[in-house]
Specification:
mainly alpha; two-stranded antiparallel ribbon
């Protein structure tokens, strides 16, 4: 759809289910994970688009490498970059 419907980029991330939510159950309490309550197709295409940017765009490649040097997992770094 039209991206002008969203006032802020976080609204788009929330629609895709890429916002953080607290997960609690009997085994663990208070861990922050992706909510995954949004549009799975939108989430898939944002993820695939970011993978392409990480491979080919020098700025995104550099940010991804910096995140990994700080100890962040590869997939966590990709989801952080989606937020950018």
């Amino acid at each position: 759809g039209d991206l002008h419907r969203y006032d802020h980029g976080r609204q788009l991330l929330r629609r895709a289910g890429l916002n953080l939510a607290e997960c609690t159950s009997g085994k663990f309490k208070g861990q922050m994970k992706l909510s995954k309550r949004g549009d799975s197709t939108l989430r898939k295409y944002l993820y695939l688009g970011m993978l392409s940017l990480v491979r080919h765009h020098p700025d995104f490649k550099r940010w991804h490498e910096q995140n990994q040097k700080k100890g962040m997992a590869k997939q966590a770094s990709v989801f952080k970059l989606i937020g950018k």
